[in-house]
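Field reference: sequence -> structure
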Amino acid sequence: MILRHKVCTKCKIEKSLEEYAKHASLKDGRQVQCRACHKAYNAQNKARIAAQRRDCYRKNPDRIKAKTREWYRNNRRAAIQYQAEYRRENAASLQEKDAKRHAKNKAAAKTWRHNRKARVRNSGERLSPDIVTKLLSEQNFKCPYCLGDLRVVGHHIDHYVPIILGGGNSDDNVQLTCPLCNLRKGSKHPMNFLPKIGSCH
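Structure field:
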């Protein structure tokens, strides 16, 4: 018999499985708390959860980077779609943050770009000559965050896992973004940038 509903361990209400986030290690493949309760819990414990994630990353950086790269390779289209939706739903606040950060850190940003170019040169890895053409086609000429037309606004090659965090300068670790979105992502780890969230697996 295939279960279609389950009772949330928090609110004690029986709900459709679609109202529970996926969890591969559980028998029914779904979280024990419904999405609404899980979201409320995260909001109430935001600072503590963030501290736990930072601590987890400090203790297991190599394992987390490897799992993140593997997940992105297996879920590239889903990741791009999620990024686009998040950017679209939070466009105003993100643009405001971008402007403030850029105004305060012009000199630091210039230094960071210089250092990053040096790291790429020393990585020993090279992108395929036709990677931009392939990505433009795969992404349908759209920025994965704001859905801007890359043929109009231009594009940057973005390392999904930043070089400074151990990401490779390889075809399976790059995507094309518009210049503004790439500057906003900066050197953030995808676990912190993709649903601003990320969890420690």
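Note: Strands lie at 5-7, 14-16, 156-159, 174-177.
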